[in-house]
Amino acid sequence: MADTELLRVEDLKLYFRTTQGVVQAVDGVDFNLTYNRAVVVVGESGCGKTSLAKAILRLLPKNIDTYSGHVYLNGTDVMAYDDEEFRQNVRWIKMSLVPQAAMNALNPVIRVGDQVAEPAMIHLGVKQNEAMEMARKMFQNVGVPADFLVRYPFELSGGMRQRAAIAMSLVTSPLLIVLDEPTSALDLLTQANIMNVLKRIKHEFETSYILITHDIATSSELADDVAVMYAGQIVEVGDTPRFFPAPLHPYSRKLMNSVPRLHGNKEPDFIIGQPPSLISPPTGCRFAARCPSRFDKCVEDPPTFTIEGRRVKCWLYA
Amino acid sequence: MIESTPVITSEEQVTDQPGKNGALLSLQGLKVYFELRKFGFGSAGFVHAVDDVSFDVRHGEAIAVVGESGCGKSSLMKTILGLNKPTEGHVIYEGKDLGKMEPKVLKWYRTQVGYVQQDPYGALPPFMSAQRILAEPLIIGGVKDKGEIADRINKVMMEVKMTPVNDFLTKFPHMLSGGQQQRMVIARAMIMNPKFLVADEPVSMLDASVRVEILKLLRGLQESYNLSVIYITHDLSTVRYFSERVFVMYAGKIVEKVNIGDLLRNPLHPYTVALLTGTSEPDAKNATTYKEVPPGEPPSLVSPPPGCRFHPRCAKMIQGLCEVQEPPEYNPEPEHTVLCWLYKNENDSR
C-alpha cells in the first residue's frame, strides 16, 4: 500500500459571505497525500488553514458563497457525493477530525467513554457494549487509564481530554485523521507526550494525518511533508528532509527563520508587515508586498512550478 | 472555591535591608498560599501556589521564570506586582518591603514597575482610544500638563515603533492587529519610565512570525533603559534570546537557577533536562524518533507529594531519600543552584 495515493485535493475553493464582502478563505488549493504519511499545513493565523480542514471534511457553516473543486479519496471524487452520502460513507468512516481546542470540544454532561463509543455505534452500527469495548481499547492506545471511561470531561486534565478526543477520532479506524492545532493549548511536556502517541498510532494503525498548525517546531515531530499556506493559497509543498534545511518560497524561508531555536547560533527574525485581507486579496503574487526578493514579474499570479518533486508557487523558480 | 485574599499567618519582623550586591528586587522565603473554602466558611486546606521562593533581580538584568501551567508562575508574578499578599516571606524593592508599604509609597512602587500582560486584547480597555489608554497612567500619576502628556505619549509610541504616531493615537484596540495591540500594552507599561518590567507570557497569544519581533522590541527597551525584566514563559526556545538567567519552576518551587549559557551546556535538575528534551526544533529526524517524556502530570498544589515534588515522575529517583526529605539547595558550580538530591555528594557543604 506504500506510495499509493490516499487523498488528492484539486483546485479546492471555499468562500464565505460576510457583511464586508466575500472572504476567499481557501482559494484554489492543490495537494496530495500518500498512504500512511503525515502532511502538516502551516501558516499564520487567518491564512485559511482551519477553513481548509473544514472544506476537506465538508463541515461548513451556513454563509457559504463558493464551495468547489475536487477531493479524491482513494481515487473517488467525494465532492460529487451529496451531503447524506458524504456523512454515511466518508465522515468518520474514512476521515475523522480532531477539532481545534479539542479539549473543550467534548460534551460536558456526557461521560467520555460514551462520547468515544458514539461514532462507532452510529457509523459502524455496533451494539453499545461492543462499542464501549472498542472505546476501552482506544483509551489504552492513547494512554488513558480505562477507569476514565466513566468520568466526565471536567474530571480529566487538558492532556487527558486531548487524548480522549484523539481516541474518539480513532474509534472508527479511519484512513485519514485531520488534526486541527492538536497541541497548541497544552503544556510542553504534554505536547511531547501527545506527539509520541500520534507517532505510535501512525506506525501501528497505518493512519495518515493532515496536521494543521502554526507551530513548525512541534509539528516536525510528526510531519513527512510540509504544505505552507499563505493568504488562502498553498505556496509550497515539500518533504521534510529537504524542506526544513532549505525551503524554496521566500515566505517559507521567512517563516522558518522566525522559529526560535534552542541550539545553534541562528538569531530568529520576523516578517515585516501583515498578511493581506482575504476579502480583496492583491492581484499577482499575494506575498509580493512583504517579499524581499520581489521583481517585475510578481504583479502576475505565479503558477505552481515543480522542482525535483517539490512544488512552489513563485516566479523565482520559473 | 478559592478565596481571593491569601491568609497572612506570619507576623515576622520586617527585614528592611537591601538585597545583596545591589539587587533591585529581592524575594526572601516567599510563600503564597490560597485557602480553599468548603461551603463558604470551613477550610479545606491550602493551595501552595508559591512555596519558599527566594531570589534577587539585579539592576538591568533580564531573568526568565520557566514552568508549565499551574506551577505558580502567575501567582509569583502577581505577588511581585503587589496584587497578592504573601502568606510568608518578603518582597523587597530597593530596600523597602512591599508588604509594609504605605499607600503613598505603594503608588510610587507602581510607577516603578511596568506590567506586560499575556493577552493584549483582554488587557486593553475596548472603549478607550490609544491616546486615552496611554494618558491614563500619567493622569493617575499626577502629570497635569497637557503638553507633557502629549510629549511622553509621542515618545513612548516612537519607542514601540507605532509610527506614524498620529495615525495610531485615535485608534481603538479592536482596530489594531495582535502585534500592534501587544506594542500598545508595552507602551503603557513603559509610559511611567519604570525601572522594572514584569512580562507574563508576552508572546504566547501572538503568531509565530510576530513573536520574535515583540521579543526583540522588549530586549531593545531593556538594553537602552537598563531595565530589570522578569519574563514569565513556558517556552524555553525564546528564553535564550531574551534573558541572562533562567529560573525553572515546578509545583510552586524554583528547582534550578542557572545562567543562560549553562542551561544548554549543563542542565542539572531532571525536570529541566525533561523540558529541554521536550522542546522541538524543526528537523526531519524528529518524525522517526520518540521523545523521552517523564510519565504523569504535575502534582496538585493542594497536597504536593512529600520530599522532592518531582520524585513521582523522576527517572533518577533515589529510593528512601527523594520521597522522604525535601532536597536543600545545592550549588554544584558558581551561579548555578539546584534543588535535587542527585548533587548531594558533589558539594556537601550543608
What's the Cα radius of gyration of chain B? 21 Å
The structural class of chain A is alpha/beta
Biggest pleated-sheet summary of chain B? 8 strands, mixed
Domain count of chain A: 2
Approximately what portion of the residues of chain A adopt beta-strand conformation?
A: 15-25%
Strand order of the largest sheet of chain A: 6-7-8-3-9-10-12-11
**What is the string of helix and strand elements of chain B?**
EEEHEEHEHHHHHEHEHEEHHEE
CATH fold-level name of chain B? Rossmann fold
How many domains make up the coordinates of chain B? 1
pLDDT averaged residue by residue of chain A = 90
- Biggest beta-sheet profile of chain A: 8 strands, mixed
Shape of chain A: globular
**How many strands in all of chain A?**
12
Using the CA coordinates, give the radius of gyration of chain A.
Answer: 20 Å
Description:
The complex is a heterodimer of chains A (318) and B (350). Chain A has 318 residues and is α/β, with parallel strands linked by helices. Chain A has nine helices and twelve strands. Chain A has helices at residues 49-57, 83-89, 112-124, 128-142, 158-170, 188-205, 216-219, 240-243, 250-257; strands spanning 5-18, 21-34, 38-42, 64-73, 76-77, 95-98, 176-180, 208-213, 225-230, 233-239, 305-307, 310-312. Chain A has an eight-stranded mixed beta sheet, with helices on both faces. In chain A, strands 2-1-4-5 form a four-stranded antiparallel beta sheet. Helices cover 29% and strands 23% of the residues of chain B. Chain B contains eleven helices and twelve strands. Chain B has helices at residues 73-80, 103-112, 120-123, 130-140, 146-159, 165-169, 178-190, 208-225, 236-239, 260-265, 270-278; strands at 23-38, 42-58, 62-66, 88-93, 96-97, 113-116, 196-200, 228-233, 245-250, 253-259, 330-333, 336-338. Chain B is globular and about 70 Å long. Mean pLDDT of chain B is 87; it is low at 1-20. Classes of the chains: A alpha/beta (318), B alpha/beta (350).
